[in-house]
Amino acid sequence: MATVPGSVQRSFRLSRSTSSLLDQVAKSTNESRNALADRLLGQALRTERHPLIRFRTGAAGRNEPYLVGTRLKVRQVMETVRGHDADIDQTASSLGIASATVRAAVAYYAEFTEEVDADADWSAEVEADERHRWEREQAAIA
Hints:
The chain is mainly α. It has helices at about 15-30, 35-50, 75-85, 90-95, 100-110, 115-140; strands spanning about 55, 65. It has a two-stranded antiparallel ribbon with strand order 1-2. The relative contact order is 0.08.
């Protein structure tokens, strides 16, 4: 049986209702049950440690951490924190959120830096690609 690099074999008992729901969601998302269970369990454990973080799948299909009660992605908050020279209160004021909420994003980022940075890098690449595509279109009609 093939395994995912870095994965560990575990055995869990699930209630019938949870198993059925897992099957339904896996079918609707076109994920394997194992991949879906891994993703959801990972997100639940992160949410347990960081209660102000939730995960959403965006239009491009990427699943990213957001701050609860906002439309702000952790990567966006961190970009703003850096833009304000790590001043939490100034960042909070700029974003219109509580300082504690900014601290929650910073805490999540501190634990999962590589993943958040990878999300930011991916977003920058998509933005650059879309900009170049738009520029080519503008040149074509000029």
